[in-house]
Specification:
This protein is α/β, with parallel strands linked by helices and about 250 residues long. The chain is built from 7 helices and 10 strands. The protein is globular, with a radius of gyration of 19 Å.
């Protein structure tokens, strides 16, 4: 039975179809589909998904949407299996005060990074999406916690909504980095958004590195990974870290 890994975020649901074991490397989905969480209209999946039984394995930071998805799968695809992952299901030591409150996406990215990093080196895991998370994985493979800050688009929206005259600027992750000195209000905002986030992430990586005995490997994922990684020395961009972490967890026996 093929695996359908589902990452339910606050703004997007991402589904990855895995057809088999990729050996010792990090597994990657053969197909990826995305649905806006706000709409949560699952019926289009009927035309996209293979008409064979699937094993659904979901991780979620949005409980209501996850409940609706589980009900849709039960009603529309009764031959499929459906499982919701909890933090205790993960092959990961979690060294924080309240493990059950940590976003499953952060933990699953750490699971995937543990397959990528050198066994004797810690890792910093950056996920650049709606929020930007910067998390530390120890040399022993434990999730040690990290930092959460607003991503590019969320910051732009908050800046516009919290002021009277500042516009909400558009953001294109494929565009060239903006000039540092903006010659218009919109250009100044774009500069602040982009270079402010780059500076924040670089500072966080450096401060985490300073407290470690060995230099960490840096892995970057998310929609804005490519642009951000260009300003992080030796950072490795890895697509679909969370979906890969779901696959790794679901493949465990017992």
């Amino acid at each position: 039975m093929h695996l359908l890994a589902v990452d339910i975020g606050n703004h997007q649901i991402k589904l990855g179809l895995f057809l088999g074991d990729d050996g010792d490397g990090l597994p990657q989905p053969a197909e990826v589909w995305k649905i806006p969480t706000g709409e949560a209209a699952f019926e289009p999946l009927s035309a996209l998904l293979p008409q064979v039984p699937l094993a659904w394995c979901a991780a979620s930071v949005h409980r209501q949407v996850e409940s609706r998805l589980a009900a849709w799968v039960q009603q529309r695809r009764p031959r499929d299996r459906y499982r919701l992952l909890q933090h205790e299901n993960l092959p990961l030591a979690i060294h924080v005060e309240h493990p059950h409150r940590v976003g499953s996406d952060r933990l699953l990215a750490a699971v995937a990074v543990n397959r990528l990093r050198s066994p004797d080196r810690p890792a910093v895991v950056i996920d650049a999406g709606t929020a930007i998370t910067v998390d530390l994985v120890s040399a022993a493979g434990a999730f040690e916690g990290g930092v959460i800050l607003a991503g590019f688009r969320l910051t732009a929206k908050a800046l516009a909504e919290g002021t009277d005259l500042l516009p909400e600027v558009d953001y294109d992750p494929t565009a060239e980095p903006p000039a540092v000195v903006g010659k218009s209000t919109a250009a100044a905002i774009r500069s602040g958004l982009f270079w402010g986030q780059v500076g924040a992430v670089r500072e966080l990586v450096q401060r985490m590195s300073d407290r470690l005995e060995a230099a960490p490997q840096v892995f970057v994922a998310g929609g804005d990974a490519e642009r951000l990684a260009a300003f992080l020395p030796e950072a490795q961009v890895v697509p679909e870290l969370v979906l890969a972490g779901i696959w790794i967890t679901s493949s465990l026996k017992g």
